[in-house]
Amino acid sequence: MIFVTVGSRNYPFDRLFIELDKLCEEGIIKDKIFAQIGTTTYKPKHYEYKDFISQEEFLEKVKESRYVISHGASGSIMKALNADKKVIAVTRLEKYGEHINDHQIQNNEAFGTNGYVLPVFEMGELKEAIIKIEEGKDNLKKWENKDPMAIQKIIDKFIQENWEK
């Protein structure tokens, strides 16, 4: 099972769920999907979903999944990585009304550059990310959380090194 999560903030992420339906129709995704869709207005056609789930159900879905497709929020990503799951992190973009700014770009770049997630910045990249995981060609590193501040340090370091570019 693939678990998809977009959190509980009041920003829809229709593009993601439309693309997942398309990939199901194309036969790219053959696995069962369970999606937590939040305030998304699009209703998926090819997989089970709920608008919101409890923290307990979230952790259970992560545990049951083969991998997680998450929006670029560090909390959701960290919960999946801490459960030893591979993660595709799809960036919410301000230009589509999916968030108040583009901070998820920096989150996903930091996680991706360090080899912990497959970042997706535009929806056309999702198919390739899914194929990489399905074929075992993702080259993702195993997350080992020995420092509770590790992710903040990774993101801060990435932003500092790339701020002037």
How does this model look, in words?
The longest helix has 13 residues. The protein is globular, with a radius of gyration of 15 Å. The mean pLDDT is 90. The protein has one domain: 3-Layer(aba) Sandwich (Rossmann fold), CATH 3.40.50.2000. The chain contains six helices and six strands, in the order βαββαβαβαβαα. A six-stranded parallel β-sheet has the order 3-2-1-4-5-6, with helices on both faces. α4 packs across α6. With 165 residues, the chain is α/β, with parallel strands linked by helices.
In short:
With 165 residues, this protein is of the alpha/beta class. It has helices at 14-25, 55-64, 74-82, 103-113, 126-134, 150-162, and strands spanning 2-5, 33-36, 48-50, 67-71, 86-90, 118-120. The chain has 6 helices and 6 strands.
Domain tally: 1
What general outline do the C-alpha atoms trace? Answer: globular
According to DSSP, the number of beta strands is: 6
CATH-level-4 superfamily name: Glycogen Phosphorylase B
The number of helical elements comes to: 6
Strand order of the largest sheet: 3-2-1-4-5-6
H/E series: EHEEHEHEHEHH
> What is the share of helical residues?
25-40%
- CA(first)-CA(last) distance: 39 Å
Round the mean pLDDT to the nearest integer and report it.
90
- Biggest β-sheet: count, sense, barrel? 6 strands, parallel
CATH topology: Rossmann fold
Spell out the blueprint of helices and strands.
Elements: E1 2-5, H1 14-25, E2 33-36, E3 48-50, H2 55-64, E4 67-71, H3 74-82, E5 86-90, H4 103-113, E6 118-120, H5 126-134, H6 150-162
Parallel strand pairs: 1-2, 1-4, 2-3, 4-5, 5-6
